[in-house]
Every structure is written in C-alpha cells, then in structure tokens.
Amino acid sequence: MKIFGNWPASPWRRSLLAALAGALPMLAFPAPSLWWFAYVALVPWILLARAAPTGRRAAYDGWCGGLGFMLAVHHWLLPELHVFTVVIAGLLGALWAPWGWLVRRFLAGTPSPGRAAAALVVLPSGWLAVELVRSWQGLGGPWGMLGASQWQVAPALRLASVGGVWLVSFLVVAVNVAVAVLVSVRASRVPAVAGLVATAALTSAVWVWAPRPHVDGRVRMAVVQPGVVDGVDSPGKRFDLEERLTRRLAGRHVDLVVWGESSVGYDLARRPDLARRIAALSRETGADVLVNVDARRSDQPGIYKSSVLVGPNGPTGERYDKMRLVPFGEYVPARSVLGWATSVGKAAGEDRRRGTAQVVMDVGHGLRVGPMVCFETAFPDMSRHLAEDGAGVLLAQSSTSTFQHSWAPEQHATLGALRAAETGRPMVHATLTGVSAVYGPGGQRIGSWLGTDASTAAVYDVPTAHGTTVYVRFGDWPVYGALLVLLATCAAEGVRALRPRRNAPARLVPPARTGRGSPARPGR
C-alpha cells in the first residue's frame, strides 16, 4: 500500500500518520496561536484520506485523525485523567470516520471539476456536522472548534457576528479543501481557485455589509484575580486575599466587581459572616460584587456552583446555578459504568447539581449582566440566549488553576472574543488564577490580560452597545444549511447506488439446445 509517492506504509503506520495529521490544527490555537496555520492544517489529513485504497480505509483515516485532533486539543487533561483521556479521544474521534469517507468519495483519483466543486461545500458541511454532535454537553462540549482559532482575526470576528463560530469553521475547512485540491489535482484547479475567490468575496461582503454594534456608553468593570492559593484552609485564605484586593477598588467608581469561579467555598446562608464581609466590600466600592459559590447548599440537596450577587445589604437574591457541568471534572457520566475513572485520575468524587435556567441580573447603574460559569463560554447558544434576554454585558467566572501550566488558560480566555463578536455584547472573563480577559462588543481586546502569574484587582472601561447581530437573530443557520447539504448528498448517493440496478440489461434466456448439444435454430 502506498500513500504519497513511493513511500510504503503498513496500516498501523498509516494510522499513526493520520493521527499526527489530525493533531496539526492544535498549533492554530493558543498558546502557539498560529491562527494562519488553520487554513492549511487540514491539508495533510485530507491528502491522506483521498489517497486511501478503499472507503473503509478512508473512514479509518478519518477516525485516527479525529483521535489525534481530540487528543491534541485536550492534551492538558492527561495529568488529571491519564489513560482515560486517550479513551475519550478515541471515542470522539470516531465522529470523523464518515468525514474521512466523504473526502475519498469526492476527491479520490482525478475528480471532475464538478466533483471538486461539490467537495468545497460537502466536506465543510461534514466537518460542521461533527462539531455539532461533539458540541453536546454530554460528549464534552464544543472545546476546540476550528473556527475558535480565529479569535484575534478581525474579518473572522465579523463572520462570527453573522453565522457564529460555525460559519468561521465552515470557511476555514473550505479553504483547506481548496488548497488540498490545488496541490494534488491539476485538472480541478479552476474550481479550487474559484472556491478561494468566493471565500474572499464572502468575507469582504460581510465586512462591508454586516451591521456593527452601536456603542452607546461605557461601564467600569473590576476583575479580582487572587492567583493560586494552596495549603490548609485554602478557601479561607483565598477569601481573605480576595477581600484585600477588592478593598483596593474603593474610590475607583466601578459599576460591578467580579470574582472568579469557586471564589467562595462556603454557602453564604450557612456563613452569614462571609456575606456581611462581602456586603461591606460593596459599600466600600460603591458597586455590587458578583461572587461564585462552590458549596453544598443549605436550601437544596447537593453541591452547586452558583453566581451570587451581593449588594451593600447582603445577597440580593440574584443567583445563577451552573447548568452545563464539566464531564469528569464536575460529574462522571454514567457513573455506574464509568465510575472507575475516579481511580485512575482526578475525576469528580461526587456529582454536582445542575441549574435549570439562565439568568440575567440587574446589578444597578442601569446595567444588566448575563453570567456564565467556566466552560459554558464554549457554548455559543448560551451567550446568544443571554443577549436575547437583554444582557448588556456577558460575564464568565472561571478557574483553570488545575491546568495552570498548560495551554488551557489562554485557550479558554480567547473564547470570550468569539462570544462577544457573535452577540455584539462585551464579554468579561474573570478567573481565580488567570488568564482573565475583557473584550469589546466586536470581539476586540480591551486592556491587558491578567496572566497566570498575576494576583491583582484590575479595572476595565468596557464599551457597551445596542442592536442585534445576525447571529443572535437567526441563530445557528450555517449548521442547518450544512445538514441540508449532507441530506442532499445522502439522497444523491442513494440514487447513484440504485441507478445501476435499474439500468442493468435484462438477463437473456440461453438458447435451447438440440439433442446433439448444438443451439437450436429457428424453423428447424
């Protein structure tokens, strides 16, 4: 078996090559952040699958590449989940098996210009279908969506305001397919070039036509990031440090103070002394304080992670309970079957409870905010619904302290740029240990990041905006379009499979033979 040129490879070697090719897009994400690499990162994987000798082998190439991709974007989980990380990557990688088959179906051999042109639509649609399925919270959520690698590219952020991160992913894959055709199929270079021109034209049209957020004011948001606090009674020490840092904000005329995820390790109803201390901070700073309580509740069974708003007179009653929990980190899916994960890694010993609805909070000063907790910022639908419900500022309270020395904190912080651009609302990403970041309503960075080595309280002048983006109004329309394309492709493949049977010539009855073994002749 041959893959490229005269280079032979065993099935195992080919599988390894596919896994390595699938891992390449990780370099487009932070920390390497080679955003431009995303537009060619899939080319080796595509060339490998198109050269597969059979459709089944192409599906294996898709599976192995998907395993490599999922392992690369989740590699920072290895110290916590160990071998289970590989198991999860292998299961999710299977989602790319049909995509590998589609690559071979449309690009194998010397595809006609029409087939190559179809590939520019079908293959990105197949990729979006994979991203849609794996975006389900039960499968881990949409961490590492390809379009999210373009968080600092202004034209890509404008595309996100029209079709969300989905549209960005679609066009990034389309460019990769066009480049793969250009370098491998001389006869189909015209549709490949046409695809690149069409992508550039669409991006330019969106840049000119898509409505921009109308900035109508500014709010002063303060982020309190205490940094890593370890040792005995770390929740108490962390609270004391957050209290000291917040006091520095007195006289800064802030509109809201935001603490990170799990910033309070005690239920405030059971610890009224802590509630009084936070209320005193609210009076000193002249602003409400949004804390995040990670504790067993006094009024309901179980442990919740909750955004709780505290004003000058104590908790205001505004509360949001985290809805989408981190698999294995905050609960173990099908614990009766997968509970063994707690013995090989640091999976959750007890499942946390889920909230039931998103909340928009009135924090005074005419400001309404929509809180999210941790990796909920990876879900485009959550920020979109908050914008629909009237949130003027999106907030994320996060903690990536477990993965402090990995690429996870930076990658997590960049998701805020996409959510801001999609909704036309500024986004504040406040963490315990970094990276904290703030983005304007167009997805542009506001001020400096607070890195993983920072322990401080920072104030940001955040522009606010009104108006509705196309994405907020019409939702995930690129996904629906991609599913329609795949449905049409399946129908066409079904017709193609049936056509030879319908058009097959009728079976001729063999001529009768005489007693001597010679064919009988008419009239004889």
How is this structure best summarized?
By secondary structure, the chain is of the alpha/beta class. The protein is built from 17 helices and eleven strands. Helix 1 crosses helix 3 and helix 3 packs across helix 5 (83-93).
Account of the 3D structure:
This protein has 524 residues and is of the alpha/beta class. The chain has 17 helices and 11 strands. The chain has helices spanning 11-23, 43-50, 55-73, 78-81, 83-93, 97-107, 113-134, 154-184, 189-209, 234-247, 272-285, 335-338, 341-344, 380-388, 408-423, 470-474, 477-503, and strands spanning 214-225, 256-259, 288-296, 303-311, 314-321, 361-362, 368-373, 393-398, 427-431, 437-439, 456-466. The strands form 2 sheets. It has a 6-stranded mixed sheet. The chain has a 5-stranded mixed sheet with strand order 6-7-8-9-10, covered by helices on one side. Strand 4 (303-311) and strand 5 (314-321) form a beta hairpin. The longest helix has 31 residues, at 154-184. It is globular.
Element-by-element helix/strand order = HHHHHHHHHEHEHEEEHHEEHEHEEEHH
The share of residues in helices is: 40-55%
What number is the mean pLDDT? 90
Strand order of the largest sheet: 5-4-3-2-1-11
* Annotation field: number of helices: 17
Rg, nearest Å:
28 Å
Number of strands: 11
Q: Label the structural class.
A: alpha/beta
User: What best-fitting shape do the alpha-carbon axes yield?
Assistant: globular
Major beta-sheet overview: 6 strands, mixed
Distance between the termini: 58 Å
Low-confidence parts, pLDDT < 50 over ≥5 residues? none
- Which strand-content bin applies to the residues? 5-15%
